[in-house]
Amino acid sequence: MRTSERTLVTDQAPTVFPPIVAPDADARAAAAARQEQLTKPPGSLGRLETLGNWIAACQGTCPPRPLQRTRVVVFAGDHGIARSGVSAYPSEVTAQMVANFRTGGAAVNVLAAASGATVRVVDIAVDADTAAEISTHKVRRSSGAIDREDALTADETAAAISAGAAICDEEVDSGADLLIAGEMGIGNTTPAAVLVAALTDTEPVLVVGRGTGIDDAGWSRKAAAVRDALHRAAPVGPDPQGLLRVAGGADLAAMAGFLAQAAVRRTPVLLDGAVVTAAALVADRLAPGARAWWVAGHRSTEPMHTLALAELDLEPLLDLQLRLGEGSGALAALPLVQAAVATLGEMATFADAGVSTADAGVSTADAGVSTADPA
Ligand SMILES: O=C(O)c1ccc[n+]([C@@H]2O[C@H](COP(=O)([O-])O)[C@@H](O)[C@H]2O)c1
Ligand SMILES: Cc1cc2nc[nH]c2cc1C
Question: Which HAMAP family match (predicted)?
Answer without folding.
Answer: CobT
